[in-house]
Amino acid sequence: MKSISSLQELLSKHQASFDPIVPFQPGSDKIIALDFTTDNKELTKDIFTNTTIFIEYIDKKLKKANALYGIGGYGEHRTIYSMSQVFDAGQPDEEPRRLHLGLDIWGKSTTCIMAPFDGTVHSFAFNNQLGDYGATIILSHVLEGETFYSLYGHLSLNSILNLQQGKKIAAGEVFASFGIPAENGQWPPHLHFQLIQDIGNWNGDYPGVCKFSEKDRWLANSPDPEIILQLRKFIPANNQF
To answer: Who wins on pLDDT, 134 or 82?
Structure first.
């Protein structure tokens, strides 16, 4: 398997040529960081266990900052995953999954999603459990002869309607959109974006959350997507976590 450092080096060489994943105008649009760890005392269980109230919380944060998107989450140990049994262990005394392996972009439903570079549809699925990805697409990519994957979770059902494995997706092509709660696993509208080096036998799904004790192994296989997104630099200095 390609090492994380060499994959990052490969992506860094081509960074200037990547297309944006979501519409964003640096001169006029704003973006803020959102924190879903225990450090965020505003985010109570009453909020993240009620989808309607959770949506109101996100919308309020974005509106107050006049921001188009909220972003964050890579390597974040999150409180919110206690809301669903999807992230619980099989045994009562076993460690649950709480560490986030991708980056989230929180915004309005129907926000369009574009391919950052040429790809092929590897697989897709409707992972329809509370807290799961909902509609999901995984693309495969080849760069300088090296294959890797990108995962897009919490999509609209229209994103996977009539989709076929092996379909070519061009860089910059709109191929998906943010889903509403009924389509995206009962979350406020957002995109979970994740890079995957070795996807193994997974199809239409791949863990986006791991056990904290196993973080080194999982993070090594899913390097920080910011190398593709390049959005953190637009977060105001007083909003960094």
So the answer is: 134
